[in-house]
Amino acid sequence: MEIGHFTWLRAHKARYDVSSSGVTPIPLDDVVRLGGAGNFIEDLMSVYGVDKRNLAITHGTQEGNFAALTALRELGLIEKVTTVIPEYEPIRVLPRFLRLRQNELRINGSLTELLNHIEKGSALFFSNPNNPLGVFLSSKFLWELSDELRRKGAYAIIDSIFLEFVENNLRDLPMENVVFTFSTSKFYTMRELKVGWVVGDDKVIREINGIIDLVSPLVIDLNLRYASILIRNRGWVRERNLSIIIPNVDAMRSMIHEIKDYVDISYVEYMPIFYMRVMCEDITGSSLANELLSRDVLTVPGQYFGRDDGVRIGLGSINKDDFEKAMKIIINVIREKCRR
Predict the structure, then answer these.
(1) pTM as predicted
(2) Alpha-carbon distance 114 to 136, whole Å?
């Protein structure tokens, strides 16, 4: 099995790298200066307003997704999984890897259509906010989703790694028939460590903890201490992230009008990514990404999200000057391709 998204990123380098969906890593020295660490579990209980029985610690979001979907299968609660297109490739691949029946739902501007695809003995499995579009279900819709899942005897696994970019209050997440997976990889990015956690339905969490103990127990205490410092300073992290993202968003918005007849932009405020769909005949996301790569700009083609109609562009891991240079190249390439 091969995850094409990762193969693409490992195989290619460019002067202007806008392929990352995260934010420039926080230096370890900056983290140390933020203050002392606490008990990571207690910190999470405070942030999410939950009991310890609603929490599991993992090594990352993908491990959390794997453990959660495996838990639902092993508990005999699901036989079928619904995912969406476009979607982060590992989410789309995992149900098939676990030999679960899978339905893929095409979405455009909203995830609310998922509420119409809840069946007994099934699970919804999706990123919220969506990667690459950024669209997301608000707390209100998540509660509606939880109620409908409980009523129909279904479940949801929600990859929430981007949620803190768009939602500040995390104490109002529903716990029944839902699990949310998180990690430090995007919002709290550090090069030196990665910690993940799962929040949700207590009987599913209990099974997840058993699976984690079986395959990869004991997250390193030092990692937990640094993660505790970051969690305790969420406000500082948010402001620091936005200081990188917002100038690039402003630059994107001021420049993209030059090709407004050729592209459609999907962007949600404060997200570190946007998706640019190209509306020109015979231009695919793959062909565009390869042409950009030949000009020293690295993006991620839409084929790795299930639709080859554009590219995902990162806003959080590049300084404004370099981002503007990358955007100029992107604009020039699209003009050349679309004016033929």
Answers:
(1) 0.97
(2) 11
